Amino acid sequence: MPDMKDSLRRTLWISQVTFLEAVRQRFFAFLLVLGAAMVLSSVSLRVFDFGHGELKFIADFGFGGMFFFGSVLAVVMTAQLFFSEIDNKTALTLLAKPLSRPEFLLGKFFGAWAVLGVFVLVLAGLQGVVLWAREQELILVAEQAGKIPPTFSIVGLGQLVLLQWLRLGVVIAIVLAISALARTFLFTVVVGSLAVVAGQLQWIAQDAFLRPTDSPIYAAFLWISTRLIPNLQQFNLADALVLGSSVVEEGALISVGLSGLTYLVAYLTLGALIFRRREI
Amino acid sequence: MSSAISVRHLTKDFRIGLRGLKLRAIDDLSLEIPRGQVFGLLGPNGCGKSTTLKVILGLVSATAGEISILGELSATSAARRRTGFLPEAPYFHKFLTGRELVRYCAQLSGVAAADLGAAVEDALGLAAMNEAADRPIGTYSKGMLQRIGFAQAVVHDPELVILDEPTAGVDPVGSASIGRMIQAMRAKGKTVVLCSHLLGQVEQVCDRVAIMDRGKLVLEGAVEDVLSRRDRHVMTIEAMTPAARAAAEAALEAHGAKITSVTHPRRSLEDLFRELVTGSHDA
């Protein structure tokens, strides 16, 4: 038990320094400002709502920014945090201490995940304020017109924040597994970005897998694809959770959460196994 | 008591290129480094010194051979807890201050929370970095980086300290300061393994040396034994006149001995530099 406690402590120290290093980067501040600008600009751009409800447009626009910039941050920042330690040889100093490689990798993961937590929380907070302000105006208009006003759910927003954070955690775990194998930052960013795109499109492979096929090779390819690549679209429940446009089935949230956690642990384990054999 | 480091038949091959061509970096190296001594590992660039240190620390895996540190299998957490390491050209997080870095390394090395403050202050004191300890590392000179690197390597009071090129790029004053730190470690009974190209300093501070070339060990022994030539003698004579020299030559010849060279003793450029430049440029 003391070993486990020491191990957790070492992981925590690595994650603390990783977090400090990441939040000091201009890249993080730049993407946070861009994301915030996108959320705030959704109010003035709501006239282009393409016939949907105003709140839905504001939510889609703001959450779109959070998904996109969050993914960019998760891929680029994680790869940068990993390769800065390898290329600058700080990893040599750290790994010569009683710090195991899985602890080092886990520390990197938690540090990067904490930064993404701040990112998601700040943007979701802004998004909540923007939605609430517009909701109040629309309630007044609806009351005067005798209509039912549109609403949004604070609880749903909280649930969505958790789901998005988990989704970005899965992306970080995938990027760390790629980093453990890759030799260069650029390769990791390119392959990591392709993995995110593949995750966003994974539902196509899932649909195809459910259809009958005569080719066993094609069926095997689809089977492997649907298990190897996480379905990142399953985390996009903004409409249902925040705007209540559709009903979220009981247990669906837990199922999505468990699926995300399974991929997160699986990719971190894979990364740790690869990193154990890497020559620093 | 077991050796500080015991290396038996160590071989390390690197695979290069897509065809997996084999490059042998270390070739059947066997070495015993006794405890409580300063051991110099010498050799030209690319001879396998740094790779040997990395294999000893478990940062690179061995192709063949056995290594133990202080009687324990190398690369284990227990062995690393008793070992300190300063890598070549160290780089640390620039946003941390020197004190924060040493504290961070102490925590990772398992120093108990109650001893943390004293351990950090001791290490900073040994490296003469107390005054600059609260400055961000990004503002440090090369010599200060080496000294703070030394502090992080010894903060957990290890029994074995491995220093890879600790004087690379450091001026003679800084280099002499690092030499004093090594001697302080020896005085505390620690084992120090020093990898350096500053042969003069190695000769001054090391008890034993090993020389590697192309991955192989070509010489190993006590500094005194490997450097002294038992068949030659040096006398330093004051106020020698031509008549005195002729008399001395005649007297020696009468006993079958012969003077082969007469020169004036020289001081080293490093001694002269240190004599003239008293202040440190690192402050």
Question: TL;DR?
Answer:
The complex is a heterodimer of chains A (280) and B (283). Chain A is mainly α and 280 residues long. Chain A has 11 helices and no strands.
Name the features.
heterodimer; A: 280 residues; mainly alpha; 11 helices; 0% strand; B: 283 residues; alpha/beta; Rossmann fold; 10 helices; 10 strands; globular
Question: How would you describe the overall organization of this protein?
Answer:
The complex is a heterodimer of chains A (280) and B (283). Helix content of chain A is 80%, strand content 0%. By secondary structure, chain A is mostly helical. Chain A has one domain. In chain A, helix 2 (26-44) packs antiparallel against helix 3. The two termini of chain A are 30 Å apart. The model of chain A has no long low-confidence stretch (mean pLDDT 88). Chain B has 283 residues and is an alpha/beta fold. Chain B is 35% helix and 23% strand. Chain B has helices spanning 49-57, 77-81, 98-108, 116-126, 142-154, 172-187, 199-205, 223-227, 242-254, 269-276, and strands at residues 5-16, 21-33, 38-42, 64-69, 72-73, 83-86, 160-164, 191-195, 208-213, 216-222. In chain B, helix 4 packs across helix 5. The longest helix of chain B is centred in the middle third of the chain and has 16 residues, at 172-187. Chain B is globular and about 70 Å long. The two termini of chain B are 42 Å apart. Chains A and B meet through helix 1 and helix 4 of A and helix 2, strand 6 and helix 3 of B.
